[in-house]
């Protein structure tokens, strides 16, 4: 299956969550068995040569892609969650959004110092959440080998933001314009 075929499986929802936004909905790709399988195979092809110790997924669709990638690689999976969602002792980072702030957390000690990780999410837009997740992982002593995404919205600058911070970044599909 080609990248164009995978791209065609991603639904665009106009004016969501607010007017002027073209929301790229990967759930339609995830619901297509052959498409989802091909997406995971392509993620594996990028991540395998890096030989990570762990795959770290960003809430929420990063859990889906990250867990599938971890299973295919035979690696462990660690979720990075929004504040208050994990039951054990956590470490976290506060970060600024366009209109406010948020917090990401992971279980304390789940990513050991020296761990080599690949950070995964479904989509990179402005990059704020992924950058915060990478910083949180670095604070734990992890080496972030790459941030890996199914979709990039390059006009929003997220990939460039991560790369400026020294995080190698790759996305399989790009939607120009928004």
TrEMBL record:
It catalyses: AMP + diphosphate = 5-phospho-alpha-D-ribose 1-diphosphate + adenine. The keyword NADP does not apply. GO terms for cellular component: cytoplasm. InterPro entries: Ade_phspho_trans, PRTase-like, PRTase_dom, UPRTase/APRTase. It is found in: Cytoplasm. Residues 51-144 form the Phosphoribosyltransferase domain. It holds the Pfam family Pribosyltran. GO terms for molecular function: adenine binding; adenine phosphoribosyltransferase activity; AMP binding. Keywords: Cytoplasm, Glycosyltransferase, Purine salvage, Transferase. Its main location: cytoplasm. GO terms for biological process: adenine salvage; AMP salvage; purine ribonucleoside salvage. It comes from the Bacteria. It is an enzyme of class 2 (transferase). Pathway: Purine metabolism; AMP biosynthesis via salvage pathway; AMP from adenine: step 1/1. Its EC number is 2.4.2.7. The keyword RNA-binding does not apply. Belongs to the purine/pyrimidine phosphoribosyltransferase family. Homodimer. Catalyzes a salvage reaction resulting in the formation of AMP, that is energically less costly than de novo synthesis. This is Adenine phosphoribosyltransferase. The gene is apt.
């Amino acid at each position: 299956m080609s990248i164009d075929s995978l791209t065609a499986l991603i639904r665009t929802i106009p004016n969501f969550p607010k007017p002027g936004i073209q929301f790229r909905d990967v759930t339609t790709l995830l619901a297509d068995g052959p498409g989802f399988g091909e997406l995971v195979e392509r993620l594996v092809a990028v991540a395998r040569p890096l030989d990570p110790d762990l795959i770290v997924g960003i809430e929420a669709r990063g859990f889906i892609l990250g867990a599938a990638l971890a299973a295919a690689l035979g690696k462990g999976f660690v979720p990075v969650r929004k504040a208050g969602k994990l039951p054990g002792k956590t470490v976290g980072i506060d970060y600024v959004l366009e209109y406010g702030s948020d917090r990401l957390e992971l279980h304390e000690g789940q990513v050991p110092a020296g761990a080599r990780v690949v950070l995964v999410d479904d989509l990179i837009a402005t990059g704020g959440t992924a950058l915060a997740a990478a910083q949180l992982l670095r604070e734990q002593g992890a080496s972030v080998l790459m941030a890996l995404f199914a979709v990039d919205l390059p006009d929003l600058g997220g990939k460039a933001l991560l790369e400026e911070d020294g995080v190698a970044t790759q996305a399989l599909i790009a939607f120009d314009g928004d």
